[in-house]
Every structure is written in C-alpha cells, then in structure tokens.
Design goal:
Layout (H helix, E strand, L loop, with lengths): L1 E6 L2 E6 L9 E11 L1 H7 L12 E8 L9 E4 L2 E2 L5 H4 L10 E3 L3 E2 L6 E5 L3 E3 L6 H4 L2 H13 L7 E5 L3 H12 L3 E6 L2 H7 L5 E4 L12 E6 L4 H10 E9 L11 H6 L3 E4 L5 H10 L8 E6 L3 H7 L7 E5 L3
Parallel strand pairs: 7-8, 11-12, 11-14, 12-13, 14-15, 15-16, 17-18
Antiparallel strand pairs: 1-2, 3-4, 3-9, 3-18, 4-5, 5-10, 6-7
Bound molecules: zinc ion (2 copies).
Length: 322
C-alpha cells in the first residue's frame, strides 16, 4: 500500500506492507486525511518523530472482530490506551502513561491507504456528515476540550489568539456555546471567515504587534508559536486563565514571575472526546468549507505537506482516491 513517512525531518512516500490488525484492532481503509500543525511540527522534530504521520482521518472499516463495524464509515480517537491502569480505569485513557498515539507516538498514522485502530477507538460517522467535515472531528474535539476544562460563566468574553486552523475552530466552538469571542490574528482573510458567526476580530500587525494589556479573564493561545504565549500574558487580567493550545517543537520559555505575581492559571489543553465534536458536526453550525484550502492525492503528500506550511493556507486534505 501507499504510505507517507517522516524520518530525519524529511517526508516521503513509500510502498509499505498492508498492516495486520492485532486482536481487538480493526483494519481501516482511508477515505480522507487532514494535515494538522502537529504533523508539520513532527516534520520539524517534535517528539523526535520517525514513522507514518497522520491522525485526522475518516475511513471505512474493512476488518473487525465485531461484524457490526464492517463497512461502517468511521473516525477514531487517536490515543491507544492500555485499558488497565489507574488513568484508564478513571476513563482518562487519553492520559494513559502506556498509551501510543496514532501517527504521533509509536502507532503508524493515517497518511496511508490502510491503518489500524482498536475497535474501542472507533466512532461511526452519521450519514449526513460528509467526509470533508468528518475529517475535522479530531481538531473540533480538541477545541471542545476547553469547555470540559473550564466552566465559563454565561456570556463570558474569551480572547482567542491565532487565526490558524485550530484558532478558527476554537473561536467557532466557543461562539456556538454562547461565549463572546475576540479572535486575534495576522491574516485579514482568515479572520473574515468567522465574522458572520458574530465573532469579533482584531488584526495584529506583524511588525508592531500592539495588544491590549490585561483586558481578558480568559485567553486561549492557539498561535502555534512560542511568541503566542507572551502575547497571551499581555492580554490576560490578574487572576485570569490562559489555555495553552500550541504544541511547539522548541521548548517554551516562560516568564514565571509574571504568572506568579499576577496569579495566572495556566491550563494545558490537548485532545478531547469525539462525541461532542460529532454532535456539533451533526448540528451543522460550524463553518468548515472555508477552512479547506486544498485537496491533494495521497501520493503527492510531500507537496501537500510543503503547501500546508505556506502562509495563508488552512486545512490541506489528502485523498487516496485522487
Ligand atoms: Zn491534529
Ligand atoms: Zn492505561
């Protein structure tokens, strides 16, 4: 089968053996995959990654021990948990210390014609959600995770930093949940995508980024850059909360004194449960089509990964059928 691999900071396509699912695992045939910033970070050395990347996908089940799955169109939770440890028994498999992670940690990812995942990770995609939307399930779940971590007071105002793919999704998810959202970004075109949803946008000039000081109780950093955290520290009020959504390859230098003196709560935030994301997709309230920049054949994945790094580009999809 055709698959993509990253090794020593380079992406390439190669002919891989079709994976054989272990007991309890299913064999999935890829329908569509999405390139995430994490994939770009893996290319740049995040986790010292080498292997098949890809964790945003929609696929058909070809092999499963439970026949009810066969032929189903599915998405899949990306953390493969042991199911036995303290975290797993507390339903926190996403924090299982023995977990592997699809396309990120020790489990071959979705940038391939076939992939495997445990049956327990699968979620069926309702018929009325097209592949182009279902492929966003994982990043939408990551956006929804913020709502599980923080109980926002009704109608609170949240500053979201970053008008990339994840920032645009987070802004939408918070807005749909009746919060006031101020989205800060550098790209007028990207910012304008979510304006019709009642999200107010603030353009930050690249040369002289001027940000309001200490104006928000809640700030989400989704810039994907180390600089974003500094900007979040500018924006947040004393006793406020910063949600850290950026996974950056290089270590982050934090001005701890500013956090301590102003008693800022820092909340790290990663993956979320898929159920709320699928419900949101079904409700059709999200604007996803304008977030798709391009669709490449899977065999042109290296060009697609390059394209995804160009400024102004949002979601790039990989299609094995093209
Ligand atoms: Zn991702
Ligand atoms: Zn476990």
């Amino acid at each position: 089968m055709l698959a993509v691999k990253i090794s020593s900071g380079e992406a390439s396509t190669f002919e891989a053996p079709k994976p054989r699912p272990r007991a309890g695992h299913t064999l999935l045939r890829l329908r569509l995959a999405g390139i995430c910033n994490t994939d770009i970070e893996l290319l740049r050395g995040y986790y010292g990654f080498s292997g098949v990347p890809g964790h945003e996908f929609v696929a058909d089940v070809v092999q499963a021990s439970d026949p009810k799955w066969i032929g189903k169109r599915v998405v899949g939770e990306i953390n493969l948990a042991c199911g036995k440890c303290e975290s797993c028994l507390a339903k926190m498999g996403r924090h299982c210390p023995r977990r592997t992670v699809l396309g990120i940690v020790n489990h071959p990812g979705a940038f391939a014609e076939f992939l495997t995942l445990p049956e327990v990770n699968l979620r069926a995609v309702p018929k009325d959600i097209p592949d182009e939307h279902a492929v966003f399930t994982e990043p939408i779940a990551a956006a929804c995770e913020i709502l599980e971590q923080i109980r926002f007071p009704k109608g609170a105002t949240v500053a979201v930093l970053g008008d990339g793919k994840l920032g645009l999704l987070i802004a939408q998810v918070l807005r749909i949940n009746q919060l006031h959202v101020h989205l800060f970004g550098r790209n007028p075109g990207k910012l304008s995508i979510v304006k019709p949803m009642g999200i107010s946008t603030r353009l930050i000039p690249r040369e002289q980024p001027k940000l309001p000081k200490a104006e928000y109780t809640y700030v989400v950093d989704a810039t994907g850059s180390a600089k974003g955290f500094e900007h979040a520290l500018d924006l947040v009020k004393p006793r406020g909360t910063i949600v850290m959504k950026s996974t950056v390859a290089e270590p982050l230098t934090i001005d701890a004194a500013r956090c301590i003196v102003n008693e800022i709560s820092l909340i790290g935030s990663r993956c979320g449960r898929f159920e709320p994301a699928i419900r949101l997709l079904k409700s059709k309230q999200l604007m996803l089509d304008p977030l798709i920049s391009n669709r490449f054949p899977l065999r042109e994945a290296t060009s697609a990964l390059e394209h995804a790094q160009q400024p102004g580009v949002l979601k790039v999809l990989l299609d094995p059928a093209l």
